[in-house]
């Protein structure tokens, strides 16, 4: 098939075409516009899907749609959520929303996971919302918008959900399976990296947005500061994997008791999978997918690692290491379409047990090792932040004309991403905006500040 040349103006026109209105004003973008497939819930605006499009609108100075989106989702945070016996907790932000018509009147209906396949709660939504509110304020300079009482209350409700006391000692956030971009069963329950990176970014955003001139605000700020420090320490110290660390784990003693032991989480050396000892490059490394008692998930999860770099959750050295690892393992991770959501895929009995034999998450497909073009924007942004823009260009060159020829699929399948996803929708909005945002960032690196956080020396880590 003859390849078509990509024209950013056409891509932007497609993004605009995905916009829907509420009360006559642009309010969000639908997840996909595939004329050939049943809409299912792809006619809704997902918070996580909207982020890349929203950043594009902000960069282009079209701030109204982002403002409306923030206002509507905030209002939905308090809406009636119950369905059947599934009742989301107060403060949860919806996964998605859409306009419905009741008695001839327009209304917004949020889905908090109580309608979703598998009834999965969107833990990431609140953090993405905080990230976007911060980007909006950075772009417009309108701090008074975030300082309005309803917004302050919304921020605090999200904080209530994640900072309140729990039956837990870890500083990371304990979440159920499928509560983020991977919204199906994939063995990602517990303390998955993607949520920890978003949690850190969400807390850092809230810290910039909360008013500190009252007692209530200051007590939240105190709680945020202390959690940021312990979370950062925990991730840098215990999630980091490289050849040196693998060697340490390989020689770990187990069943150690007490405060000052090396193997704090009782990880058994035999749990190191063979693939990782072969795959780990001599230079570079990455943050593990998950950590719990007796459990270290060695899989490489792209979004969690890229967001750790963007949020400065990983140290400068670790962030450099993550970029090096992507460069060293380019053919596995980027292959023919940037970038695989997770590496490697789980197969055979492991696939049966971890996914519950989910045919959509078959090895090297969809969430189980498929390639997602939406991840181009955090990839390009992380390369940019770590001073390696040429790698971002390489990724963009790979994707560009192929995406337009294939009509912007949701995801790709196969070990190196050469096949269009088996059940992928075409004209998937975040595929269009993920690529376009990457391209815009490459051309205007100053936009990086909307989505990136510098290392903050004021955050105090735990004592070593
Ligand atoms: C799928 C993806 C989810 C995305 C949604 C809409 O459910 O797993 O991450 O938000 O589609 O595109």
Automatic annotation (TrEMBL):
Record family assignment: Belongs to the glycosyl hydrolase 100 family.
**Gene3D superfamilies noted in UniProt:** 1.50.10.10
Family matches, as InterPro entries: 6-hairpin_glycosidase_sf, 6hp_glycosidase-like_sf, Glyco_hydro_100
Transmembrane spans: none
State the Gene Ontology terms under molecular function.
Answer: hydrolase activity
Enumerate the Pfam families for this protein.
Answer: Glyco_hydro_100
Keyword hit for Hydrolase: yes
Substrates-to-products reaction catalysed: Hydrolysis of terminal non-reducing beta-D-fructofuranoside residues in beta-D-fructofuranosides
Species source reads Laspinema palackyanum D2a
Q: Which UniProt keywords apply?
A: Carbohydrate metabolism, Glycosidase, Hydrolase
- Under which name does UniProt file this protein? beta-fructofuranosidase
Report which superkingdom the organism of origin falls in. Answer: Bacteria
């Amino acid at each position: 098939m003859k390849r078509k040349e990509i024209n950013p103006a056409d891509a932007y026109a497609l993004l605009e075409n995905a916009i829907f209105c509420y009360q006559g004003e642009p309010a969000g973008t639908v997840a996909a516009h595939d004329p050939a497939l049943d809409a299912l819930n792809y006619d809704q605006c997902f918070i996580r899907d909207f982020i890349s499009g929203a950043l594009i609108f902000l960069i282009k100075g079209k701030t109204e749609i982002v403002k409306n989106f923030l206002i509507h989702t905030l209002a939905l945070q308090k809406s009636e959520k119950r369905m059947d016996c599934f009742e989301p907790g107060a403060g949860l932000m919806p996964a998605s929303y859409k306009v419905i018509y009741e008695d001839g009147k327009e209304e917004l209906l949020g889905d908090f996971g109580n309608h979703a396949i598998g009834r999965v709660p969107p833990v990431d939504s609140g953090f993405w919302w905080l990230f976007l509110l911060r980007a909006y304020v950075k772009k417009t300079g309108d701090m008074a918008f975030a300082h309005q009482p309803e917004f302050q209350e919304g921020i605090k409700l999200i904080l209530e959900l994640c900072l309140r006391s729990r039956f837990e000692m870890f500083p990371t956030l304990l979440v159920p399976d499928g509560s983020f971009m991977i919204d199906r069963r994939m063995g990602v329950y517990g303390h998955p990296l993607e949520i920890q990176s978003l949690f850190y970014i969400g807390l850092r955003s809230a810290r910039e947005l909360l008013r500190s001139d009252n007692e209530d605000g200051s007590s939240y700020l105190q709680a945020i500061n202390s959690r940021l420090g312990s979370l950062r320490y925990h991730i840098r110290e215990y999630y980091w994997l490289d050849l040196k660390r693998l060697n340490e784990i390989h020689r770990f003693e187990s069943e150690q008791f007490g405060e000052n032991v090396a193997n704090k989480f009782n990880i058994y050396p035999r749990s190191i999978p063979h693939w990782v000892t072969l795959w780990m490059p001599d230079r570079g490394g990455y943050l593990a997918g998950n950590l719990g008692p007796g459990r270290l998930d060695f899989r490489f999860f792209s979004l969690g690692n890229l967001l750790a770099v963007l949020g400065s959750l990983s140290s400068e050295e670790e962030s450099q290491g993550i970029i090096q690892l992507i460069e060293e393992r380019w053919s596995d991770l980027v292959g023919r379409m940037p970038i695989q959501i997770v590496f490697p895929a789980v197969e055979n009995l492991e696939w049966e047990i971890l996914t519950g034999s989910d045919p959509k998450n078959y090895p090297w497909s969809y969430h189980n090792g498929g390639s997602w073009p939406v991840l181009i924007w955090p990839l390009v942004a992380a390369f940019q932040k770590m001073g390696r823009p040429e790698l971002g260009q390489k990724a963009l060159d790979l994707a560009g004309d192929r995406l337009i020829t294939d009509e912007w699929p949701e995801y790709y399948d196969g070990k190196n991403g050469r096949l269009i996803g088996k059940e992928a929708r075409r004209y998937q909005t975040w595929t269009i905006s993920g690529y376009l945002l990457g391209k815009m960032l490459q051309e205007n690196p100053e936009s990086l500040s909307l989505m990136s956080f510098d290392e903050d020396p004021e955050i105090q880590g735990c004592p070593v």
